[in-house]
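Q: Please design a sequence for this.
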């Protein structure tokens, strides 16, 4: 019996495990993969996450950038000032996992959780025929969170999601310079008339990260369209992988003996699809409430609701922007191209993202 069982060792889950362990809690961290492993993500991290993690994380930094260059129909329309850190997810996530272990959390890899039972006296997670018990469970295993489904707070069956696809492609320094994203390092973001979403391109050390995202309702044939996007850039389709990302938070991020963080709780910037900063910020507050629950012996929703209350401003920020995205999702006819006025909306709102 552990104090805290964290399901999912991505950035939000690993940070929740680390910060709970820092507070003296007995933490078990489960993940379906074995580290290092990659994810369908741009690997863009902001100042918030770097400040919370600490400067040592910059030892695995690929590039630091200060500009996001926006394109519409392949033509540049605006440069937006944005301080960004580019990481390879296989390095970044492995780094945070090791930080969690160093703080005292126990990591078990290759354990895909398939069922979670919330009982009056404990939570039991089943993975690979094994049962793991804890006084508190943290769901951090992404959009289709099994922990979230156990408390009926999940994006699993919802439509308020993005479909995302990404390729990490090794290229020579000359080829990367030829793409125009590494002198100085910056991100290119592409809005295309036939895509209700956007593409991205950014440099890493010896590779580029290229991706494509669209509302799930509008994502028919996304892989083939992504291949066309890569072909236009002259990039081979290597190491292609996909994911789904919520653009609205769940109604609640707590219940008796359960809290949710990261994509599982909808802690994602709806305008960019980036969730690392929001997930790590949420996990900081989660650890405080987990410690309070352990100290008082009260793991009911009455205590754990303080996590949502402490996250009110963050969730309000996400909710407001997510509603704009939901409106755009619903008003755009499926299969129809962007109207021309979208270019001007992009230019007007880009500075707020």
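A: Design:
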């Amino acid at each position: 019996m552990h104090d805290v069982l964290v399901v999912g060792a991505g950035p939000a889950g690993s940070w929740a495990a680390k910060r709970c362990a820092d507070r003296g809690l007995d933490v078990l961290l489960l993940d379906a993969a074995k580290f290092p492993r990659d994810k369908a993500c741009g690997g863009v991290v902001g100042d918030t996450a770097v400040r919370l993690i600490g400067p040592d994380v910059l030892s695995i930094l690929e590039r630091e950038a200060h500009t996001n260059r926006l394109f519409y129909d392949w033509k540049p329309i605006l440069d937006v000032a944005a301080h960004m850190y580019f990481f390879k997810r296989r390095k970044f996530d492995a780094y945070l996992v090791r930080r969690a272990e160093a703080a005292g959390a126990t990591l078990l890899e290759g354990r895909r959780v398939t069922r979670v039972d919330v009982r009056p006296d404990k939570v039991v997670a089943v993975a690979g025929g094994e049962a793991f018990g804890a006084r508190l469970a943290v769901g951090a295993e992404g959009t289709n969170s099994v922990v979230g489904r156990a408390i009926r707070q999940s994006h699993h069956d919802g439509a308020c999601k993005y479909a995302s696809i990404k390729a990490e492609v090794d290229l020579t320094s000359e080829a990367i310079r030829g793409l125009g994203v590494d002198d100085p390092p910056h991100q290119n973001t592409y809005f295309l008339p036939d895509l209700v979403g956007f593409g991205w391109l950014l440099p890493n050390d010896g590779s580029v990260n290229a991706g494509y995202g669209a509302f799930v309702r509008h994502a028919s044939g996304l892989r083939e369209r992504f291949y066309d996007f890569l072909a236009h850039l002259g990039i081979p389709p290597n190491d292609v992988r996909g994911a789904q990302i919520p653009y609205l938070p769940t109604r609640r991020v707590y219940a008796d003996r359960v809290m949710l963080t990261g994509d599982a709780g909808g802690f994602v910037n709806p305008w960019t699809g980036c969730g690392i900063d929001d997930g790590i910020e949420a996990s900081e507050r989660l650890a405080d409430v987990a410690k309070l629950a352990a100290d008082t012996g009260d793991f009911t929703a009455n205590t754990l609701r303080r996590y949502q209350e402490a996250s009110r401003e963050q969730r309000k920020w996400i909710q407001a922007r997510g509603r704009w995205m939901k409106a755009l999702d619903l008003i755009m006819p499926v299969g129809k191209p962007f109207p021309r006025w979208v270019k001007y909306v992009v230019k007007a709102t880009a500075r707020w993202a």
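Q: Thanks. Anything notable?
A: The chain has one domain: 2-352. The first strand starts at residue 2 and ends at 7.
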